[in-house]
Amino acid sequence: MSGAAVPVDRLSSLLDRFRVRAHLFHSGPLCGVTHFAAEPGRGFLHVLRRGSMVVRHSPKHGAPRKVVVNEPTLLFYPRPLAHDFHNAPEEGSDFICATLDFDGGASHPLACALPSLVVLPLREVEGLDHTLALLFTETERLRCGQRLLADRLFEVLLLQLLRWLLDHPEKVSLPKGLLTGLSHPKLARTLVAVHERPGEAWTLELMAEHAGMSRSAFAASFKDQVGEPPAEYLLRWRVSIAQSMLRSGRSIKAAADELGYASSSSFSRAFTQTAGVSPREWLRLAA
Question: Which uninterrupted H or E stretch holds 51?
Answer without folding.
Answer: strand 42-51
